[in-house]
Write a structure and sequence with these properties.
heterodimer; A: 422 residues; alpha/beta; Rossmann fold; Serine Threonine Protein Phosphatase 5, Tetratricopeptide repeat; 5-stranded mixed β-sheet; two-stranded antiparallel sheet; B: 93 residues; Non-ribosomal Peptide Synthetase Peptidyl Carrier Protein, Chain A
């Protein structure tokens, strides 16, 4: 008679799929156990074939996600009496997106497939007004002092109170992990989708609860913000978030993206990466011209960008949005320069990039573009003083690892060196 | 005569219309549940509670906030929270 391996049965939403995937990655784990996932939408999968009913009634370990809603899944009468059970909470994080609204007007189109979109209720309210142009919407939105409308300290306390309250119903707790890490680490992509660091931490707690092996440790946070909902600068500053900065760029996904799962790997249908203000401007349709693609109408695009630049120069929001809009303007200037380079008027592009680079040293994307251009033209003599000036500052500290790698390759080719900001 | 709870309910309707960008408050009554309002989920419930706290100058615990099932129950909770306050702090906006 064949003895079946013990079954580890995991129930919950897409967060449970993360635990299922992690379990299958544990070396040798599926040689000793069958891992099964039962999504609350009915989806079932397992590391080797087993009928769902048999997996449930014979499982040795049952890992269950709990939310505020009563579970529609009646498993108590089906589980074996000696089945070991552990529960964990549905991880949510409205803390970092206090304006979140599950919205009819998709913003930021950042959710794949047909998922309901994460929205911003102040922005949506402005967009719903037929009397406001995109320029006026941007101006009014950037002038909203959200700390005068939402008590972010109370928001913080209420958030943790309710997470801790949900924790009282689960074996593995989320509140201590989030509280200890949310300032330093990138824990959530959006209000309902945790990143690998927090999922690994939660999964490790669950497996240790059962005495099962779990050899993974959190090593590093997700590097890019490709699927991260933009963080409002006032939220970033109020909570002193360290993992996001004024230069952080968030992926903008087109409304017809066809992804089915936010955690699936592979190329996403992304329409560029944008800092907070550029993201808002793109969302409201003000700056479609910002993404430099293979369009033939570059002169027309330059004209549109210059118009947006003129509009933005009339917007004078309060801090920290004032710095955000300066970055936004330099993003536009950098894009105009990129258009010039493509149009074959390199001297205009070089001039504009140099202007941005010297006037706003914090806006490092212009520097990267300038270095790339000057390197390609072999203009080492022009390049050297610029690079030396930058290396003497900490302007590159916000560069992503990928950007730093690119910079290193460029500088190595010029026999220059730089230290990593990591 | 408008009772305190009816008066609270009127303000709560305004809050719900404001947060969920409703055209009007016609569909909002004491029996209204979160499921009846497009977009009112456990996450946006936080905004409803914080806006309610601000409007009525009260504090609602998470346990109380997530125990209410209807708009009428939320109005009752606000009334209850107001009664916990010293008289000089009652009244709302």
């Amino acid at each position: 008679m064949t003895v079946r391996k013990p079954v580890v049965y995991i129930y919950g939403n897409c967060q449970a799929i993360n635990i299922f995937n992690l379990a299958r990655l544990i070396p040798g784990f599926t040689e000793d156990y069958i891992v099964a996932i039962h999504h609350d939408n009915g989806y079932f999968n397992s590391s080797e074939p087993i009928p769902i009913g048999e997996a449930l009634t014979t499982c040795a370990f049952f890992i269950e996600q709990r939310s505020r809603l009563p579970s529609p899944f009646d498993k108590d009468s089906l589980l074996a009496p000696d089945c070991k059970r552990a529960s964990y909470p549905f991880l949510t994080c409205e803390l970092l997106w206090p304006l979140y609204i599950d919205n009819k007007q998709p913003y930021p189109f950042n959710n794949p497939g047909n998922w309901r979109s994460n929205g911003d209720r102040f922005l949506s309210a402005l967009q719903s007004r037929s009397d406001l142009t995109p320029e006026k919407i941007l101006e009014r939105y950037l002038n909203i002092d959200i700390t005068s409308k939402i008590d972010l300290d109370r928001h913080h306390d209420f958030y943790f109170e309710q997470v801790a309250d949900l924790d009282t119903h689960t074996d593995v707790k989320a509140a201590p992990i989030i509280a200890a890490n949310f300032r330093q680490r990138h824990l959530f992509y959006d209000t309902k989708h945790p990143t690998p660091p927090i999922m690994i931490t939660m999964a490790k707690s669950m497996f240790q609860y059962f005495g099962l092996p779990f050899p993974f440790n959190v090593r590093e946070d997700p590097e890019n913000f490709s699927i991260t909902l933009p963080i409002h600068p006032q939220v970033r500053e109020h909570y002193h978030l360290e993992w996001v900065n004024p230069h952080s760029r968030f992926g903008f996904h087109s409304p017809n993206a066809h992804e089915t799962n936010i955690y699936l790997h592979g190329e996403r249908k992304k329409d560029g990466d944008y800092d907070f203000v550029s993201f808002i401007a793109k969302h409201i349709g003000l700056i479609d011209a910002l993404a430099v693609g293979p369009e033939p109408d570059l002169p027309d695009r330059v004209k549109r960008l210059q118009d947006v630049l003129t509009i933005s120069e009339g917007i004078r929001p309060p801090p920290p949005m004032d710095r955000a809009i300066i970055h936004f303007q330099d993003r536009i200037r950098t894009t105009i320069a990129q258009c010039y380079l493509r149009m074959g008027v390199g001297e205009l592009g070089e001039e504009l990039l140099t202007e941005v680079t010297f006037r706003n040293p914090e806006y490092y994307p212009a520097l990267l573009e300038l270095i790339t251009y000057l390197s390609s033209k072999g203009k080492t003599r022009t390049l050297l003083p610029i690079v030396k000036r930058y290396l003497a500052t900490d302007s590159l500290k916000h560069c992503s690892q990928t950007e730093m790698r690119t910079l290193r390759i460029l500088l190595d080719s010029l026999c220059l060196t730089t230290s990593s900001p990591e | 005569m408008i009772t305190p709870v009816e008066s609270i309910l009127s303000e709560l309707r305004r809050i719900i219309v404001d947060i969920f960008l409703l055209d009007n408050d016609h569909g909002l009554n004491p029996e209204t549940t979160a499921a009846d309002v497009d977009g009112w989920d456990s996450l946006t419930h936080t905004q409803v509670i914080l806006a309610t706290e601000r409007a009525f100058r009260i504090t609602i615990s998470a346990k109380e906030a997530f125990a209410v099932q209807t708009l009428g129950e939320l109005a009752q909770l606000v009334h209850h929270c107001q009664e916990r306050l010293p008289e000089y702090l009652r009244g709302g906006r």
